[in-house]
Amino acid sequence: MEEEPGPGPAGGEEEPGPGEKEEAAPAPKKRRLAAGERYVPPPRKLSTGVSFGAAHFAETSYYFEGGLRKVRPYYFDFRTYCKGRWVGRSLLHVFSTEFRAQPLAYYRAAARAGRLRLNEEPVRDLDVVLKNNDFLRNTVHRHEPPVTAQPIQILVEDNEMVVVDKPSSLPVHPCGRFRHNTVIFILGKEHDLKELHTIHRLDRMTSGVLMFAKTAEVSKRIDEQVRERQLEKEYVCRVVGEFPEHEVVCEEPILVVSYKVGVCRVDPKGKPCKTIFQRLSYNGKTSVVKCLPRTGRTHQIRVHLQYLGHPIVNDPIYNMEAWGPDRGKGGKIDKTDEELLKALVEEHRSKQSLDILGILEEDLNSSAENKDCGNSSDCTKSAQADPINENSCPAKDTKDLERNDTAACPLNSDTNLETLEKNKELGSCEIQDGQTGEKSSEEKDPLCVECKITRRDPSPKELVMYLHALRYKGAEFEYCSKMPEWAMEDWEE
Q: What is the per-residue burial (b if ≥16 Cβ within 10 Å, else e) of 353-365?
């Protein structure tokens, strides 16, 4: 799924930063509770403010290995209000039907360890029936996928804007399994560039020009240009085969097949799209093509190129055998959406490259896919995007309060699930050597599935896709990056 790096219902809510202040909700008239009835506090409101600050950036640190940027595992709270569909169901039932990535023994152990909280009280009984306004917190040991170690180049920084050349494999902002390995966090942690406003987004595997506004006023001004389609965008890519020399216009509508895996296709029921293509060079095997998208649909350039029979050379989704012998040319797939997704996942599973899609094996066990939120591989929606994050909170703003910076204490690495289930005194949070404090990267968390798994790291080459945002031009600005090496006329792989 997009996302959910840790199990539990509190999945995916990214917290606001220290700039957001908690405001007390209007005090409702308190009614007398019936005998045995559980009290639920009223929802809390937030004033909008800074998204991420120093406390968030300090959650963990980076290290570099084999051409990859890696994040040391860390403890993190996912929070959410009770979803509408959960009301009247027991917490145990919600876990067993919607969060099947982990066995029920895990959730029982997590409750014993004090990692599951309901209205900020430890969950003692998973049979508790959920009510409207219930607020859940789930503390997980979070692992992030590696990304390229290639640095983010700052192209422009002035009083209004920050413009960077984004490397491939980096999401723009936190979503899914990515948080610190994102452009927003790297700029904040390594360049002291904070309080940035996202103007537009690039797919995780797309490199190139990425703009941020320093103020809400600048963001609003440019956003108006985007809405009025006054923003000119130019991309460059390298595709399979000999692309036609003449200009090609593709206006096929695009439909999202899966937000979880991040897959789209041409379909008459899809949203209207238009992309203009012009070949720049051909080396006898592959072509470099300029792309001018006139609309901004998810994966638009990649899907249109696939439809034209010239997918991007190393596209990990749209140039795969799973699409059939023609690889989706002309919209010919001969598979149902479910069969297509299964084939794509199996193909990456066989290559041990599910990380390229931004998903885990456990993600595929989730029961339902919420199509109201962004997908995991590209994070094309807001920084709060998550397949489990729905606006079912009765409050106007479903974003959570400030994060509790005192994460759940690490547990003894020798402890197993059975011991955890029986032990009701884990609130002491003792570390193996008897000391308390920050857990080192070498220590393992006994409840964490990721700590028990050794995954194959992608190679730096696997984290590059030959699609690059070359130029963005508005009414008052024009930002360009250098042409990537793979787009040079004499380039050979």
A: ebbbbbbbebbbe
Q: Which residue ranges in the chain fall short of pLDDT 50? A: 1-27, 47, 367-441
Q: Whole-angstrom Cα distance, residue 344 to residue 318?
A: 10
What is the pLDDT, as a whole number, of residue 226?
A: 81
| Nearest-angstrom CA–CA distance, 452 and 200 | 37
Distance between CA atoms of residues 72 and 94, nearest Å: 30
Q: What sign does the CA torsion over 15, 21, 25, 30 have?
A: positive
Contacts of 456 (CB under 8 A, 6+ apart): 352
The set of residues, in sequence order, having a beta carbon less than 8 Å from that of 217 and lying 6+ positions away, is: none
Going through 241-321 in order, the beta strands assigned E by DSSP cover 248-250, 254-258, 263-266, 275-282, 286-293
Does pTM top 0.70 for this prediction?
yes
How far apart are the C-alpha atoms of 322 and 343, rounded to whole Å? 5
Q: pLDDT value at position 442?
A: 55
> 203 with 264: CB under 8 angstroms?
no
Question: Which of these, 235, 150, 187, lies nearest to 51 by C-alpha position?
Answer: 187
Degrees, nearest 5: CA angle 151-378-385: 110
- Reported as a single tens digit per residue, the pLDDT across 194-243 is 999 999 889 999 999 999 999 999 999 998 888 887 889 999 999 999 99
- By annotation, the residues acting in catalysis are 203
